[in-house]
Amino acid sequence: MPSSPETTISVTRTRTPQRRPEDASLSFGKVFTDHMFLMEYEEGRGWHSPRVVPYGPLTLDPATSVLHYGQAVFDGLKAFRGADGQVRLFRAQRHAERLNRSCAALCIPEMDAGLIRRSFEAIVAADHDWVPRSPGTSLYIRPTVVATEVMLGVHPAHRYTYFVICSPVGSYYKEGVKPVRILATDKYVRAVQGGLGEAKTAANYAASLSAQRDAERQGYTQVLWLDAIERRWIDEVGTMNIMLRIGDEVITPPLGGTILDGVTRNSALTLMRDWGLTVSERRISIEEVMRAGQDGSLREMWGTGTAAVVSPVGELGYKDQRIVIGGGQTGELTQRLYDAITAIQYSRAEDPHGWTSAV
Ligand code: COI
């Protein structure tokens, strides 16, 4: 039985606030704020005791099931400080709903979506001063659920902990907003139909590490995953959904169980349709992409993600081929999307779809 949205969230403030880092020193996910949100689940009692407490370690028995079998889900959203000084969450409801879908995929009891939203608001309110001010910076919010039953049997746990931590961040990639290089792999696969591909679960990221290490050794930033059966249909990139512009068509692989239903993906598709562009959610093979790269019709390629925002792809490798996209520069539509999404996030533009909410 999920806690109701009216449940009181208690707040215990830290007595030892840390010094906040300079905005210019921020990268991704290296420093954490003064507080965290916690809530537990026990069978028969449901989700209970939602609270904001000082940030600190979790104490886990070595036999805690998440440490052995990975029953864990997370999500990632951001809070932005607008030009007017007001802090706003971006698409909090959609992130709360996706977290619940990930829970369902991993047999974790769902939470009340209203309470998830309130957990985001409560932690951001507690750490309001941590939301950075400089262009391109934000507060990354990481809600996570882990199985905490102490047992080694393989079955869904009867106890869970939900926590939310926050990190002031700059760019996800060391390249900043400059184009990244990605490598399509047919050696490793990420997800199959009927698996966990659309859930934001630790296992998907563990499964990506070997491929990511190989790509980095070859000088690439990220891996472009192909489907697991034929190993030719493009799926998504390490931490982003992928989009391409071939001639006048914008293409992105369809949702269908193997890729993440990205919130930035949905925002980009919505804006491009608002602008009257032809956008296809369709399967596209790596051969079609490489051919378009060679004949010059591949005009732009970019990734979308909460951490990565809208990230241009300047180069794509596949087997022994390598194509440079748009002269290795950020394309016109990529830049337009980046500008439009960040303008809404930082409240420099109207928010016609009601994506932001003030904290
Ligand atoms: C996000 O964009 O929020 C992600 O989850 C990427 C993260 C794994 C770095």
Automatic annotation (TrEMBL):
Annotated segments matching region Disordered: 1-23
Keywords from the named record: Amino-acid biosynthesis, Aminotransferase, Branched-chain amino acid biosynthesis, Pyridoxal phosphate, Transferase
A GO molecular function held by the record: branched-chain-amino-acid transaminase activity
Catalytically driven reaction(s): L-valine + 2-oxoglutarate = 3-methyl-2-oxobutanoate + L-glutamate; L-leucine + 2-oxoglutarate = 4-methyl-2-oxopentanoate + L-glutamate; L-isoleucine + 2-oxoglutarate = (S)-3-methyl-2-oxopentanoate + L-glutamate
Keyword Aminoacyl-tRNA synthetase: no
Similarity section: Belongs to the class-IV pyridoxal-phosphate-dependent aminotransferase family.
Annotated protein name in UniProt: Probable branched-chain-amino-acid aminotransferase
Organism: Belnapia arida
